[in-house]
Specification:
Elements: H1 5-23, H2 32-37, H3 44-54, H4 58-70, H5 76-92, H6 94-97, H7 106-112, H8 115-148, H9 152-200, H10 204-214, H11 233-249, H12 252-259, H13 264-298, H14 311-319, H15 324-359, H16 365-388, H17 396-420, H18 426-446, H19 454-476
Helix pairs in contact: 1-9, 1-15, 3-9, 3-12, 3-13, 4-13, 4-15, 4-17, 5-11, 5-13, 7-8, 8-9, 8-15, 8-16, 8-17, 9-13, 9-15, 9-16, 11-17, 11-19, 12-15, 14-15, 15-16, 17-18, 17-19, 18-19
C-alpha cells in the first residue's frame, strides 16, 4: 500500500520546490537580528499565516480528523479558548515585548526578575519544546511510511534533512515565507480532499450531513461540570485560553514571530487575524473526520483501520484518485515541515541568546551568525533522535499537547507574576515555578485529569506559590 507514480512525482516536486524556495533567502542575514527576526521587515499578514502554520503540525492534519472520526465536533470548544487567549496576549504580553530590543521571550523574564529565572524559564522551554516536537516529527513517519512505504527512521530523516537545509541557510525569513506557501498548500489540499471524499460518499454532502446528524456527531457543546471529560465547554474555554496564552505568549516558537513584526500594532493585528484563520482551519479538519466516518460506515474495510491517526493517511493512499492523493500527502508534509522549521529556529535562537551570548557577549557578529547556524543543525539532530524515541503513545495530537502543556503552566505563571504584581521577586518566582512544574507533572502522570486542565492547574499553582514565597522572602530580608 503506497502511492502511485504520479503521486510520488507530485510529492517529490513539492519537497524539492519548497526546499529551493527556502534557499532563496540564503545570504540575506548579516546579523543575529536578521537571522532570528528577519530584521523586522515581515508584513503582518505573512506573520498571521506563519503563526497558523507554526501551530499546525502533522498532528493536526492527521489526528484532528481521527478525533472527529472517533467522537464529534467538541474539540471546537478548545478553539474558542484559543480565540479569547489572543485578545489577552495583545493586551498583556505584546506591549511588554515591544518595550526595548528583544530577540527571545525570556529576555522579558530577566528584565522583570533576574538572570537566574531567565535561565530556568529558557531551559524549561528548550526541554519541553524539544520533547513535544519529537512527537510531532514522529507523526510525519506515519504519513510518509504509509505513502512511500519507507520505514520510520528513513521517513523522519527525509523531512528533517530537507527542512534543516533551508532553515539553516535562510533563518527566520525563510521560515516565515515558506510557512505562507506551505499553509496555502495544505489548506488547498485539504479542501480538495474533502470535496473528493464527499463525492465518494453516497448522497454527497446532503447524505453525509443526514448520517452525521442522526449519530449526534455534529455536537459542539458539552456544559457538564466535570474534570473527567477532556472536551467540555469549561475545559475548552478555560483550558484552551490558558494553553494558548502560554503557547503564544511565553513560548519562543510563537513569540519569535510576534517579535518579527514591524511594530507593536502589526504584531497584534497578526495575532488576532490568525485566530479567525485557525478557527476555520480546525473546523475544516474536523469535517474531514466526520466525512471519513460516513465513508467507512458506508464502505467498511475487511482489515481493521487501527489507531485513528492512521485513518486519514490510509484513506488518501487507498481511496483518493491519482494526483489528488499526491497533493494531499504533499499538504500534510507541508504542515510538518512548517512546524519543524519553526521549532528549529526558535530552539536555536533561545540557545544562542538566552545562554551562549550571555556568557560570551563579545562574540563578533560573524561568529554569532555561524554559531546560530551550527546550533540549528545540532537541534535538528536532537529532534531526529527524540522522534525515534516517541514511537509509543496514544493519539499523537493529545500526546503532543500533553507534553507541551506540562511546562506551559509554570512558564505562564511566572510571566503573570511579573506582569500583574509588583511584589514578586526572583527567588519567590523560582520556587513557584519549580512547584508549579512539579504539580503539572504529577497531574499528568499521577491522575486521570485530562490535558485541557494541565496549564490552568500549573499556572494557578505557580502564581499562588510564587506570590506567597516572594512575600515570605521579602519579609525575611526585612523589606516592608
Amino acid at each position: 500500500m503506497h502511492l502511485d507514480t504520479l503521486d510520488l512525482i507530485i510529492v517529490a516536486v513539492y519537497l524539492a520546490g519548497i526546499t529551493l524556495f527556502g534557499l532563496r533567502f540564503r545570504g540575506q542575514q548579516r546579523s543575529l537580528r536578521g537571522y532570528f527576526l528577519a530584521d523586522r521587515t515581515i508584513p503582518w499578514w505573512a506573520i498571521a499565516l506563519s503563526i497558523v502554520s507554526a501551530e499546525t503540525s502533522t498532528l493536526t492534519i492527521i489526528s484532528i480528523p481521527g478525533l472527529a472520526y472517533d467522537t464529534n465536533l467538541q474539540f471546537l470548544q478548545v478553539v474558542l479558548g484559543y480565540l479569547v487567549a489572543r485578545v489577552l496576549i495583545c493586551v498583556l504580553f505584546i506591549p511588554a515585548y515591544f518595550r526595548g530590543e528583544m530577540l527571545t521571550a525570556y529576555q522579558l523574564i530577566e528584565r522583570q526578575f533576574g538572570p537566574n529565572l531567565r535561565s530556568l524559564a529558557a531551559g524549561l522551554f528548550l526541554l519541553t519544546r524539544a520533547a513535544a516536537e519529537g512527537v510531532r516529527i514522529f507523526a510525519i513517519s506515519i504519513v510518509v511510511g504509509i505513502a512511500l512505504g519507507t520505514g520510520e527512521v528513513a521517513s523522519i530523516a527525509i523531512i528533517t534533512v530537507l527542512t534543516l537545509i533551508y532553515t539553516f541557510e535562510g533563518g527566520m525569513a525563510a521560515v516565515i515565507w515558506t510557512d505562507v506557501v506551505q499553509l496555502s498548500i495544505y489548506i488547498a489540499g485539504t479542501l480538495v480532499g474533502l470535496a473528493a471524499l464527499l463525492h465518494l460518499v453516497p448522497g454527497g454532502w446532503s447524505g453525509a450531513q443526514q448520517a452525521i446528524a442522526s449519530a449526534g456527531k455534529f455536537q459542539v457543546f458539552d456544559f457538564s461540570l466535570t474534570l473527567s471529560k477532556t472536551y467540555t465547554f469549561w475545559a475548552g474555554l478555560i483550558g484552551g485560553m490558558f494553553l494558548t496564552t502560554a503557547s503564544h505568549g511565553t513560548d519562543q516558537l510563537m513569540v519569535q514571530r510576534l517579535l518579527a513584526a514591524r511594530n507593536q500594532r502589526q504584531s497584534q493585528l497578526a495575532l488576532l487575524s490568525s485566530g479567525v484563520i485557525i478557527f476555520f482551519q480546525f473546523l475544516l479538519f474536523l469535517l474531514v473526520g466526520l466525512a471519513l466516518w460516513v465513508f467507512y460506515r458506508s464502505f467498511p474495510t475487511v482489515q481493521p483501520l487501527g489507531r485513528s491517526d492512521r485513518i486519514f493517511p490510509t484513506f488518501i493512499v487507498t481511496e483518493m484518485p491519482h494526483g489528488i492523493a499526491g497533493l494531499l500527502v504533499a499538504a500534510i508534509l507541508a504542515a510538518a515541515m512548517s512546524n519543524l522549521s519553526a521549532a528549529l529556529n526558535s530552539l536555536s535562537s533561545s540557545s544562542m541568546v538566552d545562554f551562549y551570548l550571555r556568557h560570551k557577549p563579545g562574540t563578533s557578529e560573524a561568529d554569532r551568525l555561524r554559531l546560530s547556524r551550527l546550533s540549528t543543525v545540532t537541534w535538528g539532530v536532537v529532534l531526529f533522535v527524540l522522534a525515534l524515541l516517541s514511537r509509543r503513545g496514544g493519539r499523537v495530537v493529545e500526546v503532543g499537547l500533553s507534553i507541551a502543556s506540562v511546562a506551559y503552566g509554570a512558564l505562564l505563571g511566572v510571566f503573570l507574576l511579573g506582569l500583574l504584581t509588583g511584589e514578586a521577586n526572583e527567588r519567590g518566582a523560582m520556587v513557584g515555578m519549580a512547584c508549579g512544574f512539579a504539580v503539572e507533572v504529577y497531574v499528568w502522570l499521577g491522575t486521570s485529569i485530562p490535558w485541557t486542565w494541565y496549564v490552568v492547574i500549573g499556572t494557578l499553582a505557580t502564581f499562588g506559590i510564587g506570590y506567597i514565597a516572594s512575600l515570605a522572602f521579602a519579609h525575611q530580608d526585612g523589606q516592608p
